Inverse folding.
């Protein structure tokens, strides 16, 4: 069924074998050397021009269009793997011990190569299409590096997507507004005064101050932020003290901040600083708060989302195109592109009822390869549709 989705059998088979090769040879963020070489040689075979100058790993290809416009259409796939020991038992499981394509980026890269093949055969391609095979999504800094190197300079609109086991194979999830949360980290250091466990009045107990702070931080999301705007503050690490008979001088809390709206992201940061400082003041402990900014939220805006929804509908039909069924608090470094250009980030369903599917970042993660036909067809169509839009606007 999916092979008929505007993807010739030969193209589908090439995508599957390319995916299996990448899956067997996963590489961590910024180490995607072999992956990049493989993509380059594939592009070369197809006669598609490419550039490897923008980052130490990763590659950007361009398929020329018939018209020169003010901007080209970009399609982006991430290509890196995760530090996970694979336990799928697949015949093409990882050959690299402790490294695994557990987020489907092997499928993202292969689907985009399929789209490249389809676009390269397109006699009527109006506007050039740039294919971004991006390194280091998992570390959250690949997109940022490519943007700093100028990858978006000539881009009018950009599209991307992620494999998602939360939805049925053949569906494409297109949502207006936020589709991934921003992700920042915080480190709070509590500087108390060490002392004898039997004489607490001579000390300032950083364990007690830290414990109060862990509980107080829980009230930020529950009491300060509009419950209609999803957000998270998680303390993931609490380190203090070494001995049962010593009052710990310092404690260190580390955590994660997630938000869907940029305004909420700012509110959360302010609230964490205020609450931490106040709790320190309560017990005369000195508090240092460090916020480590990560990736911004992915927010689908305006015309790009409309174009994406129409393209998805053309590929899989109206009934299989729908929005996210709940807010997604995962992070995705596509947010850097979304801040800079009109863009849309979709999700491709991968499950069928007869098989169990494990979540992304699980050692047993896998996806139904038939979705490669869906993603390649979608990217092909969205590039053409967005090209027409850009062309109409530049006339
Ligand atoms: Ni991913």
């Amino acid at each position: 069924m999916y092979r008929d989705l505007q993807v010739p059998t030969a193209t589908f088979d090439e995508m599957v074998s390319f995916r299996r090769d990448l899956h067997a040879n996963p590489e961590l963020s910024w180490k995607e050397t072999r992956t990049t070489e493989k993509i380059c040689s594939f592009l070369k075979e197809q006669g598609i021009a490419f550039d490897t100058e923008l980052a130490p790993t990763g590659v950007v290809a361009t398929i020329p269009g018939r018209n020169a416009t003010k901007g080209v259409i970009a399609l982006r796939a991430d290509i890196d793997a995760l530090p996970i020991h694979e336990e799928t038992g697949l015949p093409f499981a990882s050959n690299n011990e402790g490294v695994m394509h557990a987020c489907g980026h092997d499928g993202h890269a292969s689907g985009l190569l399929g789209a490249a093949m389809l676009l390269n055969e397109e006699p009527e391609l109006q506007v050039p299409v740039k294919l971004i095979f991006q390194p280091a999504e998992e570390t959250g800094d690949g997109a940022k590096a490519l943007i700093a190197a100028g990858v978006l300079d000539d881009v009018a609109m950009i599209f991307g997507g992620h494999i998602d086991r939360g939805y049925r194979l053949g569906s494409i999830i297109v949502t207006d507004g936020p589709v991934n949360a921003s992700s920042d980290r915080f480190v709070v250091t509590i500087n108390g005064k060490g002392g004898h466990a039997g004489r607490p009045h001579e000390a300032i107990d950083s364990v007690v101050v830290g414990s109060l702070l862990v509980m107080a931080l829980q009230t930020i999301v529950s009491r300060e932020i509009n419950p209609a705007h999803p957000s998270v503050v998680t303390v993931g690490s609490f380190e203090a003290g070494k001995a049962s008979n010593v009052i710990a001088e310092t404690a260190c809390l580390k955590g994660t901040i997630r938000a869907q709206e940029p305004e909420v992201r700012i509110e959360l940061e302010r609230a964490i600083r205020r609450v931490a400082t106040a709790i320190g003041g309560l017990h005369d402990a000195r508090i240092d708060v460090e916020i480590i900014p990560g990736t911004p939220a992915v927010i689908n805006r305006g015309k790009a989302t409309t174009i994406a929804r129409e393209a998805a509908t053309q590929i899989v039909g109206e009934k299989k195109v729908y929005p996210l069924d709940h807010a997604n608090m995962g992070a995705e470094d596509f947010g850097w592109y979304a801040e800079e250009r009109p863009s849309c980030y979709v999700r491709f369903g991968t499950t069928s009822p007869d098989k169990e599917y494990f979540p992304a970042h699980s050692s047993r993660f896998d996806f139904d390869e038939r979705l490669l036909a869906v993603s390649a067809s979608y990217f092909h169509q969205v590039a053409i549709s967005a090209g027409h839009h850009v062309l109409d606007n530049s006339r």
About this structure: The chain has a mean pLDDT of 96. Residues 103, 105, 137, 162 surround nickel (II) ion (CB under 6 Å).
